[in-house]
Each structure stands twice: as C-alpha cells, then as structure tokens.
Amino acid sequence: MHIKRAKQEILDSIEAYLQKDEDGHYLIPSFRQRPILLMGPPGIGKTQIMEQIARKCGIALVSYTITHHTRQSAVGLPFIREKVYQDRTCSVTEYTMSEIIASVYEKMERTGLKEGILFLDEINCVSETLAPTMLQFLQCKMFGNQKVPEGWIIVAAGNPPEYNKSVREFDIVTLDRLKRIDIEENYNVWREYAYEAGIDPVILAYLELRKSHFYRVENTVDGKQFVTARGWEDLSELLKVYRMLGKKADREVVHQYLQNWEVAKEFANYMELYEKYKKDYGLEKIVQGVYSKETLEKLRFASFDERFSIVGMLSGKLCEFFRAYCVEDEKTARLYDALKNCKEKKDLEAVIRERREDYLAKKRADLLSGEAEKLERAVLEELESYSRQWQLRTEKAGDSGWGGAEFAFIKERFSLQTKQRENVIDKTMDALEHTFCFLEEAFGESQEMAAFLAELHTNGDSIRFLRENDCPYYYKYNKGLLFDERQKEILTEMENLEKSIDRSLN
Question: CA 20 to 30 Å from 159, out of 17, 225, 335, 438?
C-alpha cells in the first residue's frame, strides 16, 4: 500500500490500542497489542509519518535507528546481585536498564505524557549479536529484564532484502506476533505531502514531467544508483536557501542528493530551463494579470515540456498565495476562539496565561510542528498586543478593570485581523483568476488546463481556499474538464505524451 494508507492504518491501530474501558484498563491488553512493522524501500518517509502521527494523537515519540546500537546499549550491562532462594544465597546476573527503555521513561518525565510510540528504524539490519535480542523484544516487548511501559506502542521499520544486503529475515514465530504493513513508493501520494511540506516548485514541475524519476534504485557496474523521496526533500531545502544566498546548484551539487547521474544531470539542466522560462514568460507578472499577446502566442506553439513547465511554475507560485491564506485564516480562527473565551471569563490576561501554558506544554512534548509553533506564537503575540494597548489606554484615561469598554476595544482590534484576512483572500483570488484567464487565452479546454486543475485538487491549501471561497473560473473548467470520460481521455493523452518523450530521450 502507499504511505498515506499506511499512515491511516497506523493511526487506526494506535486509536484501538489506546482505547480504555470505564475502569481505565486498555481494551486490548498490552500482550495483545502487536508491534507494527513497516516494510518498504528506504527514503519514502516512514520516519516523517511517525512524527506526524504522534502529533496528531497527542502522544510522545521516541525514535531510534537500531543499527547504531550494540547489544550492551540495547539490553543494558550485566551486574551481579545476591538473592536468597529457599534459604540459599545465590549470585544472580541482572542487567542495568536499557538505554532505549530509559529514553522512554525520560520522555515521560520531561513531557508529562504517559502514552507514546517507540519507533525503531532499520529493525531487520541489526548486528548478529543483537539480532536474538531484537526478536525477543518484538515478541515480549522487553530488553533484558526491562519492559516497555504500558501505554507505549512499538512501531518498527525495515527495508526489504532487495534494498539492503545486511537484512535479516524474520522467522514465522516472530512474524506471527507482528502487525505487518508493506509500503511502496507512490508519486501521486507524495505530491500531496510535497505541497504541505513546501517542496520547491522546480522539483514538482520537473517530477510532473518525469514521474519515473521520483524513485529509482538500480544496480549498475558502477555500484548502486538511487533517487529517493528523502533525497528530493533534502535537495528542496538546499535549493531554497541557495536561492536566498544567490548561489547556484549545479549538477555536481544535485548529484550529492540524487545519486543517479542520469537523473541528477537532467534535473540540473531542467533548472536552467526553468529559470529561463520564468524570465521569458514573466511569471510574476502573469499572476498580476499582466502579459502580452506575444507571450500567449509563444506559449501556444511551445514544446510539451515548456507548456507543462509553465503550468507547473504558475501552480507553484499560487501555492505561496494559498499558504498565506491558510495561515491567516487559521490565525483569525484561533484569535476568534480566544476572544470567545475572553468574553466568558471576562479576563483577557487569564486567557493569555492559559494559551501560553498550553503552548509551552505542547512545545515540551514535541507536539508542535515548526509551522504550528510559529502560528501559535503569532496568536499569543497578537493577544498580548491587545493587552498592552488596552493598558496604555486605561492608564491615560484613569480607568481599570473588565467592562464593556474593554471588550469593545478588543473587538475593534480583532476587526483589523479580519480585514487583513479579507485582503489576503482578495490577493489570492486575484492571482488565481489571473492565472485562469492566462491559461484560458493560451490553451482553452485542454490537457494543460486539466493539469492545472489536477494541481489545485492535490494541494491541501488550494482545496481549503476553493472550498471556502467561490471562484467562477474554477467551477467552469472543473465541470468542463475533470468529469468522467473527458478526464480519463485527457489523462491518458498526457501519459502517452510523457511515454513518447521518455522514449525519445533513451
């Protein structure tokens, strides 16, 4: 299955495992909570989904790459303890607490979370000395004589043998105690994640043309050559920073991330073309509704790659607008909830304290992504500005305490936030309609327009915007292009064109 389906399967399992009865006992006892085993190729996002799942469930996460451990660090060190059995004193070997188990308890102490996920990556690539211990752990949830605390779910990940020569096969006895989920790479699913993660538009534009280059693992005379989802994401982060610094990533730099020379070379060449297209067609101006008849004419007779690159570039540019809208919309919604709470409590400072404490608790527990943390800080800063401005006003007026005047003042300040949100909506809608207008004049009802709509349907931010704001162009072309047989025809045509291009390159 693809990783999106796997993520949902894990979420469902965790929900079931953590369900309790009226007495606070787990409905599925610990010994019946099978460890979850994710098997799939390297670099497809197994670790990332565990972080997302932990945040969504509001539970802790302890993550280890098990190949970095020895038997001593995993099991603990032996020591001698004197014990009495039937009036006889014996020397007994026991073990110190496993580093891994200790990390679980430390996480519980630091975060206050009593439930969580213990994630062990590369579980089937352990050393020979550690292998029996890992099998015991998966079967009994114990390292040495230390057990994983109740409420902690074990998730392990491994690579199939074709990707790693050091892989050890699990026996049937062990497999019969696991909940195994096999994952395969899937570009369309990853693309949804890519929009959410802010993957650089040039990468998305390229992969729309070369889907076969998304994930490749090949054995050649020169050794293993590979391209993974992890490689694309890490390269994306580098490209964005390089662009800020005015630096250029050539094919040698690209190859450091995409370790397949053919793909690295072609992508590096495409980046050159991408920048040329951006300059030639005036991307920034198109979303403002400024373009010439010459530009339209040039695009109509451009090559397949060029036309679809422009569509990809425009989609990437619109992503910035959609993201800005979602951030502003979410900020407005959270401020509104805070103000409702403020009205009930009649105490702005108390509301600020509660939100700050909740924010700090979630931060300590690693339950906030970078973007979520930034958003919550922005909400807190806005509420604190309301408080400061009111205090300054009351000091001048010689007034104090809660009253209708204070809430009216807060509402007035909040109205500025709603206006800011409306401004962002207007800017986003203008950019979207200008893009539709440009594509309509250039292509009309065509495969290019279908590709553009497909991008809108994939991006979670654009879906949210279109769900909450009416765009006549969107409804017009959505009905005309993406229904039933017409959709299938266009998509088939696009696939055939892509195949013909691939053949011409080989």
Answer: 17
